[in-house]
Amino acid sequence: MTDGVTVRELVGTAEFTAAAALYRSVFGYTDPAYGLSPRLLAGLRANSGSVIGAFDPAGALVGFCFGFTAVDQGEIYHYSQAAVVDPRAQGTGVGRLLKQAQAAVARYTGARTMRWTFDPYALRNAHFNLAVLAATGIRFLPDYYGGGTDRVLISWDLAGPPGRARAGRTVTAPATGDEAATAPADRDRLRRDLIAEFAAGGRLVGVDRQDDRAAYTFERGTP
Predict the structure, then answer these.
(1) Is residue 104 located within the same domain as residue 137?
(2) Cβ(111)–Cβ(69) under 8 Å?
(3) Residue 205 near residue 152 (C-beta atoms within 8 A)
(4) Which of 27, 167, 168, 171 is the most buried (most CB within 10 A)?
(5) Is the pLDDT of residue 162 over 70?
(6) CA distance 213 to 52
(7) Domain's final residue, options 60, 89, 111
(8) Are 219 and 203 in contact (CB under 8 A)?
């Protein structure tokens, strides 16, 4: 479904500006505080960051991601700040192509892993991160961007799919459409359960839809 799609690093002011516009459009941002500066993208592109676009056969930008090199306790990793795909191209494999291209940039900088955050209650995105890419949730970040913006920090092994340790417990919650725990009481309960699992040393390895419920599977121990 991605026949004819070209994925490459962006170059020049016009492409950086187009990427910033796509970013605002996909996320629905109108407040300038949530905008993305083309100059920032130029700086990242020139200094070991990733600034990558996906173009359709007609040359239109339909996807974009960007990130930067970071360090955690001596470990060099690449942090993927955001990845967006035009709604008309979502579900076609463009997102996977962007992540693969970003991983190639990350490896070139010497990073062995790539990290990013995702909304743990958004089931489609959780499935993509954990099942399609085989990444692992390593940390729960409550209210990461302010109230009501819980996130899970992902680590993606750039050398290949990680070995899996023994399964721990599975946390479940009601699901409606592509979202888990839409009712406030269900959301509070799921939030507490996820925080507890991560605090106990669990690593999130799967989020699956089972009829009208979402199941979050954690592993324990060392692979």
Answers:
(1) no
(2) yes
(3) no
(4) 171
(5) no
(6) 36
(7) 111
(8) yes
Instruction: Specify the residue for token string 């306790």.
Output: 73
Sequence-ordered list of residues with C-beta below 8 angstroms from that of 99, at least 6 positions apart, any chain: 65, 80, 83, 133, 156
Q: Are residues 74 and 121 in the same domain?
A: no
Is there a single domain that holds both residue 196 and residue 126? yes
Cα end-to-end span (Å), the chain: 35
Residue 168 has, within 13 A of its CA and on its CB side, a CA count of: 20
- Which pLDDT value is given to residue 223? 46
CA pair distance 71, 118, nearest whole angstrom: 20
Give mean pLDDT, residues 99-112.
95
Distance CA 99, CA 97 (A): 5
Q: Which of 58, 83, 111 is the last residue of a domain?
A: 111
Backbone angles phi, psi at 133, to 5 degrees: -90, -15
Q: Which residues form the domain of 200?
A: 116-223
Total domains in the fold of the chain? 2
**Model confidence over 6-61: pLDDT tens digits?**
999 999 999 999 999 999 999 999 999 999 999 999 999 999 999 999 999 999 99
Relative to beta strand 113-118, strand 75-85 is parallel
Only one residue has tokens 């507490």, namely 192
Predicted confidence band at 167 (pLDDT cuts at 50, 70, 90)? low
Q: Same structural domain for residues 136 and 221? A: yes
Q: How distant is the alpha carbon of residue 91 from its chain centre?
A: 15
Q: Read off the tokens for 150.
A: 């819980």
Tokens linked to 131: 């099942």
